[in-house]
Amino acid sequence: MDDKGKKFIVGIFEDEDILLKAITTVRDKGINIYEIYSPFPVHGIENKLGYKRSRLSIAAFCFGFLGTCLALIMMIGMMTLDWPMIIGGKDFLPFPVFIPVVFEMTVLLSAFGMVGTFLVVSNLKPWGNPKTFDLRSTDNKHIMAIQLDKNKMKKDSIEKLLKSSGASEINEKTMGI
Amino acid sequence: MHVESKIRKPLITGGKTLRDVSNDISARVEEKPSLSWLAALGVSLLTLGVGAYAVYRTLWDGIGMWGLNKTVGWAWDITNFVWWVGIGHAGTLISAILLLFRQRWRMSINRAAEAMTIFAVICAAMFPMLHMGRLWLGFYWALPLPNTYGSLWVNFASPLLWDVFAISTYFSVSLVFWYIGLIPDFATIRDRAKNAGRKISAFIYGTLSFGWDGAAKTWSRYETVSLVLAGLATPLVLSVHTIVSMDFATSVIPGWHTTIFPPYFVAGAIFSGFAMVLTLLIITRKVYKLEDYITVKHLELMNIVIIVTGSIVGIAYLTELFMAWYSGVEYEQYAFYNRVTGPYWWAYWSMMTCNVISPQLFWFKKIRTNIAATFIISIIVNIGMWFERFVIIVTSLHRDYLPSSWAMFYPTIYDVGMYLFSFGFFFTAYLLFSKYFPVINMHEVKSILKQTGEKVNKVK
Questions:
Q1: Where are the domains of chain A?
Q2: Is B82 contained in some domain?
Q3: CA distances from A128 to A117, A144, B97, B252, B429 (A)
């Protein structure tokens, strides 16, 4: 998303409980909140903002299942099909001895796949540029960013509403400059 | 909103605010290295250097440099391997299992404990790798790669190969778990550097922070990722030492061929891991003045974990003796009789004293809330756990079925050097971590300040 040159109103909140109430007030007035930036995860914020539950756990399951299949294909291919040998009097398809490696490969692919998906969908990468509305949002303040041209309401009334719902400071920010 | 009982002691003392947390932890990263840190790093690097000579001789001349013989084919190397892997169990246990159980006291200690886990697992992996002798061919022996020795693949029926998969999975998943937790804290340090106009550190921590901005959407995904990773890491952490124990338990050597090994090894691993976490954190909290974050309450809770796991280990020792007697198998009985009264009796009794008796002192509240006592016992426990592995490995091997091949194991200076090498690496890595990375998980501590900080408790 290219937000260069877009204008934002930035409300700064000190306390997460005031912030949660403010989100409801602001959204009830029909104002579109661009995003909230917090120094730590605030519980219940995704419901207030109307975000859907993350589907990353489904990704984890799919990658895990892939790991299970790959491990089985690898071991059956090597021990049963390509070069069968009698080891400790076991079968050529010794399923019980496959369990540890199947488990480890499942966990490995599941964890890496899910974390990789998370990094990709959240656009996190070493050369990534953070959207910084206020440097204090990784320190001690919660930031509510409202994009001006996405809202019909006037700037002054948005600011007034933020003030009355507990914002300690209200700034204006133009992105990317 | 979450409500805490009034009787609960605050987890973070000193009336800290969100800003205080950022300042207290980030300042350690931002300030110039202190003289004492440089001195400690110097000692660690020296140890690493001395150990590196032993590694060089081992690689150049072969593992004949070690004290192994035909009868005792596994001794210090595998003892050190199991010891380090065991130590590497606390970090992921603290961050994964305690997360699933919603234990908030994990938040002040998980970062350092996870770092310790990662370094300990690297130390552990060194030993079997160097034991392969020709390390550069190790890939073909340990990994299922196509090779020119015919189509002969690695043997998936061998627990040693399961170990390769278990330990490399454990290492990489722990590393990812640790790094994901670090990202928001790197962002805090990056923004502080930007604010103060320090361009180089803003760039370095900016790269490390992956462009994190703390958006609510990202936090929501982040929480899902941590929870699922914790769910994956919980069985993983239990599987690793289970599989390590199978290296022994699936053999037919008297003293090794036991079904109780998996739970017994896992309990022992958690026991030694917590002891090492205590040793490191007591020093770190003192040097970095983190008494408000890692309180005596935290140390006490860790000591309680040590009593529980130490008692499980004690019961396992007694069960082994009972089963050896009750089995009626002559060889099994001799293996244990030899352990207790044979030429290695001193190792057995050191293990018993350090692991079974010393943690029982923690039943006394005065002892488990005393920092000096905790520090000493944590070191004693780790000495005991080293002896446990030595006892299991060496005493089971040195007198086998054929009395004419009975032998003793005498370590050479190269065995000692290898052990020093792992210590040198471990402390060098931990020192670098504690200087350049935030030692306490800032964002998690911030998230509980409102519920368990001292200020809130006063208002209640």
A1: 7-53+131-174, 56-121
A2: yes
A3: 16, 21, 32, 55, 27
Q: Which domain holds residue B199?
A: 18-143+174-459
**Quick one: tokens of B35?**
């003289």
Residue B4 lies inside a defined structural domain of this protein: no
The CATH T-level fold of domain A7-53+131-174 is Alpha-Beta Plaits (3.30.70)
Q: Hey, are the CB atoms on A112 and B176 less than 8 Å from each other?
A: yes
Q: Is the pLDDT of residue B227 over 60?
A: yes
**Chain A interface includes B387 (CB < 8 A):** no
Top residue of B107, B155, B165, B459 to mutate, by most chain A CBs within 10 Å, is: B165
- The one-character DSSP state at A78 is I
Which residues of chain B make contact with A125, given a CB cutoff of 8 A? 210-211
Q: Give the number of domains in chain B.
A: 1
Assembly ipTM: 0.91
pLDDT in tens, B288-320: 888 888 888 889 999 999 999 999 999 999 999
Picking from B157, B217, B236, the nearest residue to A35 by CB comes out as B217
**Interhelix angle for B442-452 vs B18-30, to 10°?**
150
CB A119 to CB B195 under 8 A? no
User: Is the Cβ of B19 closer than 8 Å to some Cβ of chain A?
Assistant: yes
Is B72 part of any domain? yes
**Paired tokens of B327:** 């089995």
